[in-house]
């Protein structure tokens, strides 16, 4: 749990938002898919303790107890997969902070004769109409999935949201890199006899090919390296070193939703910098989790091993234990150190303040006229 929390708490946009106290105004206690706002509250209180500067370490006992109440898997002191915990926590925070109080029923149109751009945007709008939270704002992207029937060549295309990318590891490669894992993820795959697809045109289960592509990228990209392999007959962990960039990961040309990706202006390119790594040491039956993270205030890198914290160089984060990689999108900032989104947010708050002042002056004038 500690390693996942260290990575998440060093996510700049999320921590800044929780420390501002904004989460208190967006708690959705009535969402049947949420946890009555309690997980978001517990996380907010934990973040406040971590960043308070009081004490050298913080024991997340209350937070752990809250998580355990809603998911018994995380009770007790048995070790659990950090990716499973992160997935549960992000889902829980999203539902606890979902700004949609009543999810509308929306009937999707017939996508026949529509372009991929139109279908993708339609699906994204549908998703946002029912799911709108700080978690969606920061962590969610969209990928394209294409299935092609081997018998009749019927093509089925869907666009789905994702919170993190789970990348397969091409163990047959001599040198493993993050790019080779991304290539493996987007490689066309032949579905097996045990995984037949129901073709709506053939009206039968058929062999098919499947392909994933990135369509929309989030502000924060969480990459899960699938080190734990499992088949019907055996389970194993892949311990090979996977080389990944600590800065300047340019994904622009990998995203199908970006038109003319080769000519995109520099400030609009999808470039990411590493800010945290969640590590797993050990095998399938257990092990130990640690984390590397860049402090979002002093921008120095630290190594977290339970209650021990050590200042390190960023290149030390590249080990064969790297399991979850956390990247933040590089943004241009203005003279005040604000990126475009922050600048827009400040402008909106100023406009609201001006509107309130105008309304106040109107009320004062009305009172004067009455007198």
From TrEMBL:
SUPFAM superfamilies associated with the record: Cysteine proteinases
UniProtKB keywords: Hydrolase, Protease, Thiol protease, Ubl conjugation pathway
Region feature Disordered, mapped onto this chain: 337-371
Origin: domain of life: Eukaryota
Entry-linked InterPro entries: Papain-like_cys_pep_sf, Peptidase_C19_UCH, Ub_carboxyl-term_hydrolase, USP, USP_CS
GO MF entries: cysteine-type deubiquitinase activity
This enzyme's EC code(s): 3.4.19.12
Biased amino acid composition, Basic and acidic residues: 353-371
Keyword DNA damage: no
Catalytic reaction equation(s): Thiol-dependent hydrolysis of ester, thioester, amide, peptide and isopeptide bonds formed by the C-terminal Gly of ubiquitin (a 76-residue protein attached to proteins as an intracellular targeting signal)
Residue span, USP domain: 1-330
Single GO BP term: proteolysis
Main enzyme class: hydrolase
Protein family (similarity comment): Belongs to the peptidase C19 family.
Name of the protein in its database record: ubiquitinyl hydrolase 1
């Amino acid at each position: 749990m500690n390693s996942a929390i260290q990575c998440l708490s060093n996510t700049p946009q999320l921590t800044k938002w929780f420390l501002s106290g904004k989460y208190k105004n967006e708690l959705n206690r009535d969402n049947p898919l949420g946890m009555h706002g309690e997980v978001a509250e517990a996380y907010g209180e934990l973040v406040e303790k971590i960043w308070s500067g009081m004490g050298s370490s913080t024991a997340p006992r209350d937070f752990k107890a809250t998580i355990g109440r809603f998911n018994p898997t995380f009770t007790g002191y048995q070790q659990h997969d950090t990716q499973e915990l992160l997935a549960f926590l992000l889902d829980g925070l999203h539902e606890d902070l979902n700004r949609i109080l009543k999810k509308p029923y929306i009937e999707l149109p017939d996508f026949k004769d529509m372009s991929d751009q139109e279908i993708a945007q339609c699906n994204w709008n549908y998703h946002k109409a029912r799911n709108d939270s700080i978690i969606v704002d920061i962590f969610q992207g969209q990928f394209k999935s294409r299935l092609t029937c081997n018998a009749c060549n019927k093509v089925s295309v869907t666009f789905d949201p994702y919170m993190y990318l789970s990348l397969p590891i091409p163990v047959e490669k001599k040198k493993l890199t993050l790019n080779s894992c991304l290539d493996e993820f987007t490689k066309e795959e032949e579905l097996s006899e045990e995984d037949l697809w129901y073709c709506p045109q053939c009206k039968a289960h058929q062999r098919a090919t499947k392909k994933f592509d990135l369509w929309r990228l989030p502000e924060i990209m969480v990459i899960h390296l699938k080190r734990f392999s499992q088949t019907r007959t055996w389970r194993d962990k892949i311990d090979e070193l996977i080389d990944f960039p600590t800065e300047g990961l340019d994904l622009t040309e990998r995203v199908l939703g970006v038109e003319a990706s080769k000519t995109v202006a520099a400030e609009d390119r999808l470039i990411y910098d590493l800010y945290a790594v969640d590590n797993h040491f050990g095998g399938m039956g257990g092990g130990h989790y640690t984390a590397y993270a860049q402090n979002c205030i002093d921008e120095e890198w630290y190594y977290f091993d339970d209650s021990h914290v050590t200042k390190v160089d960023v290149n030390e984060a590249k080990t064969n234990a790297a399991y979850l990689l956390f990247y933040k999108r590089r943004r241009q900032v203005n003279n005040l150190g604000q990126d475009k989104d922050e600048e827009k947010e400040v402008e909106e708050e100023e406009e609201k303040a001006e509107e309130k002042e105008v309304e106040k002056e109107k009320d004062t004038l009305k009172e004067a006229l009455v007198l």
